Amino acid sequence: MREVAFIKQNKEKWLEIEEVITGKTKKDPDELSSLYINLINDLSFAQTYYPKSKTKIYLNHLATSIYQKIYKTKRTESNRIVEFFKTEVPLIAYEYRKFLWFAFAVFAFFIGIGVVSTHYDEDFVRLILGDDYVFMTEQNIEDGNPIAVYEGGSTWGSAIGIIKNNVMVGAKLYLYGIFGGIGTLLVLMYNSIMLGSFQYMFQQQEVLGTSMRGIWIHGAFEIFGMVIEAMAGFILGASILFPKTYSRYNSFKIGFKKSFKIFLSVLPFTVIAGILEGFVTRHALSMPLILNLIIIFGTLGFIFYYYVIYPVRVHKKLKAHAVL
After folding, report:
1. pTM surpassing 0.70?
2. What's the pLDDT at 167?
3. Distance between CA atoms of 199 and 78, rounded to whole angstroms?
4. Cβ–Cβ < 8 Å for 195, 223
């Protein structure tokens, strides 16, 4: 069957599903399940015969959205918060996985800009971090403790202040997406350049490895959480710029709901990062190296698994159940 004929044959059904997703039409759980099964069949057909078409992408979006509608309407004895993190967020992460890779690519690119700029201009790091902070760090390095800045203040006071600051940065990364994603891009650009410049400053002083023992204890959750928050901001921006078959208003409503859930899912990682920075990072150089590595690679592996690998597994499981 030609793709045009396939679309014409199923157009009314897909438009009906769109109305269910946007809330214009109400369906009971059995009707939703029937629509979902039919849609999965259409998606499988499109994946087989039109693998590179926009139709396949469109149907995949509808399938994810209608499943979440089913999930919300069905009765469950499971804990709502558990199901939010176990199923709902991973499915959204899978649906918008290209936005994650885009956010990471932007993040990596501007880190490179920070590194190169610091390499060729010794004053660049002072412009980004400020003279006082650079001078303090250089003094700490001369004293043999590159991460001494994390040892000051009380544990709880430091943790609360850090969490507050990280939440504010994350909120900007997300909410500034309302400006078509440009605001998110600018906030991510600044923070990425700052990170690249900051880390290369330690490289120039030949203490990069030592500094990473401390910085990345909390940095895995904090920094890669920032990438996820940028992902949410880009989703929000794209919902306004690229409404696809929806009206711009309905596209924004859908984009806001889904991106906000992604943003909420990062908050626990932000809190844990603040606690690690306040309580653990200060002891980084006195800890056995193996313990540093366990914490760093453990936290890094966990956040990578949750937002990259686990969503694929949840999607495959969902698809297998739909076929059955």
Report:
1. yes
2. 95
3. 44
4. yes
